[in-house]
Amino acid sequence: MTDGLFDDTAVIRRVVREGVLLAGGGCASILQIAHPGVAQGVADHSSYAERPLDRLKNTMQYVYGVVFGTEQEALLISRAVYGMHTRVTGPGYSANDPDLQVWVNATLFHTATRIYQEIFGPLTDVEADACYQQYAVLATSIGCPAQKWPENRREFAQYWNRTVASLVLSQAGQEIAHELLHPRNLPLALRSASPVNRFVTVGLLPDHVRRQLGRPWSPRKEQILRAGLRAGSVIYPRLPLAVRQAPKTYYLGALRKQVARRRPATPVS
Questions:
Q1: pLDDT tens for residues 57-71?
Q2: Burial tier of 229 (Cβ tally within 10 Å: 0-12, 13-18, 19+)
Q3: Please, are residues 85 and 62 in contact by the beta-carbon 8 Å criterion?
Q4: For labeling, which of 129, 164, 167, 176 is most exposed (least CB within 10 Å)?
Q5: What pTM was computed for the model?
């Protein structure tokens, strides 16, 4: 039982709780800024280069707050994100543009379900349909009209393929992608993981986006990535659930401390 937007039987909760999804975070972020409107908004309004972990923290607090929080927590974090987005405007872009909201959420859904199924195996059609419909809340909670989210997975696939094929990194997008792949100011404990994260991120990207970034890929690299995912599918599901959902526990706990003080963090765009 829960007083949140979902209960523990919801497929979205089973998917989103898994910390391994963070392996796809870099890919989702680069796909987002491959849209010129998103890239310019981030370039103009975000301190992503100086504080590389803040964007991750606030994205995760929003996702976990909406999916696992109480209705009050979901409402408070959604209002915080919406309020921040009202200030992220400039020539030719607005963070509250429904088309941009749909694209950002599409990258979260596609990347999360891709990683989940690589590690745990395919969702059934019923599960995948349910998860897709449930993911709409991450867009609608910040003001995106419900009808903007493609009606079903078939329409989403058409939308995804069409949009991905059209992606052209702007100058701002190129610069942000470089910072994402080579983050500065990381805590010492995380620096050794940066090359692995960069390899996985590049490997998950569509080939034409990799080419725009000047990141060559090869059959050998693909074999290494596939081998790593296969190893992950053997080892990761056998870890204790408390370990697997440690990021959710951490970020949701931090959000709840902020909610208790009635001062949710202002997300970084």
A1: 889 999 999 999 999
A2: middle
A3: no
A4: 129
A5: 0.92
